[in-house]
Amino acid sequence: MEADLVTEAGYDFKGISCGKLRRYFSWENFLDIFRTLWGILQSIGIIWKFKPEIVFCKGGYVSTPVAIAAWLCRKPLIIHESDLEMGLANRIASKFAKYVCVSFPETIENWKKSKPALAAKMFLSGSPVRAELRQGIAEKGWDFTGFKPGKKVILIMGGSQGAQFINELIWFNESKLLEKYQLVHVCGKGKITSDIKHQDGYFSCEYIGEELKDVYAITDLIIGRAGANSLAEIAYLSKPAILIPLVVGSRGDQVSNAESFAKNHPVIILNEKEIDYHQLDLLARIEQLLKLPIKSNDSANDDASAKIVELILKTTQSYGQTKA
Question: 87, 276, 288, 318: most buried by Cβ count inside 10 Å?
């Protein structure tokens, strides 16, 4: 998906080999050591050919070989941690980075006692959000979904890969929800099923691209995971949300994200491990949430991109002067 999006935006895309550390025994962990080493060599080749003045990495295990290659090539490195709790990839990359941009103030506070040197590198930037998300046109949103104004619209998204638990939760409650609402359901790649006959007022797709801003324009409430980037968009658009953080196979970062986010935003957090979607009264939770007052967040994450760009330029200039 990333390759398609980057290419469509007019930028060159270079893929590299990378290894993932699984939090359980797997022979793949041993093989991935060699994949990571090969990824470092590939990254060195890309850096040598592209000759960047600075390298910026935004989390994920695929960024680890690039971060190490940047250090080996003596290129200044800035990384960005989206989640409240820093992941393993960024903990490794932070050893080579000049600055660590973070989205949550708690991230800096949490590291001040245990690793003050790391906390000193941290820079509270927030998470970048595309300004165009506020520029959606409602009429285009109605045309895209086939809906009509009248009933409120709920947007369901389970992250870039979709979330089967959320999908099943929505499908189980579909009839009740459609009595009062219209549903835009982003199921994830390969997760749309033909076994279910859907009713009027239900629109599903694997992924929404350019039309997302228009869908946001008609959305009254969001149901989804608690990835930091998703939360940044929700805050930016001042939408109420039901959050179901990813727990299974996760280090728990989305739970921390959701708890921090709930301090300042109208949300309901559901624990996937503790709820039975056959018994959960989802309709009641939605109605409860829609009664809460919504405060406009006109400045939420507006300047995150600008802050990061300014830091990149400042670091590049400083590095050039030092090198000279």
Answer: 87
The Cβ-side half-sphere exposure at 211, using a 13 Å CA radius, reads 17
237 three-state secondary structure: helix
The answer as to whether 96 is a domain residue is yes
Helix axes 63-72, 27-50, angle to 10 degrees: 50
- Of 102, 106, 107, give the one whose Cα is nearest residue 124: 102
Domain shared by 123 and 188, yes or no: no
Q: Which residues of 169-178 are buried (b: 16+ CB within 10 A; e: fewer)?
A: bbbebbeebb
pLDDT for the residue 164: 87
The total domain count for the chain is: 2
Structure tokens at 28: 């793949």
pTM, to two decimals = 0.84
Tokens of residue 58, six digits:
């935004």
> Residue 41 corresponds to which amino acid?
L
Q: 105: how many CB neighbours lie within 10 A of its CB?
A: 13
Cα gap 5→63, rounded to integer Å: 18
Identify whether residues 270 and 316 lie together within a single domain. Answer: no
Helix H or strand E encompassing 282: helix 282-290
pLDDT (tens digit per residue) in 197-245: 788 999 999 989 899 999 999 999 999 999 999 999 999 999 999 999 9
Q: Does 296 reside within a domain?
A: no
In CATH, what number is assigned to the domain containing residue 73?
3.40.50.2000
Domain contains 274: yes
| Domain contains 295 | no
Same domain, 223 and 259: yes
Residues 96 and 48 in one domain: yes
Predicted confidence (pLDDT) per residue in 44-93, tens digit: 999 999 999 999 999 788 999 999 999 999 999 999 999 999 988 999 99
The reported pLDDT for the residue numbered 249 is 60
- Please tell me the distance from the alpha carbon of residue 25 to that of residue 223, in angstroms, as a whole number: 33
Q: Which residues neighbour 322 within 8 Å (Cβ) at sequence distance 6 or greater?
A: none
Range of the domain at 244: 131-290
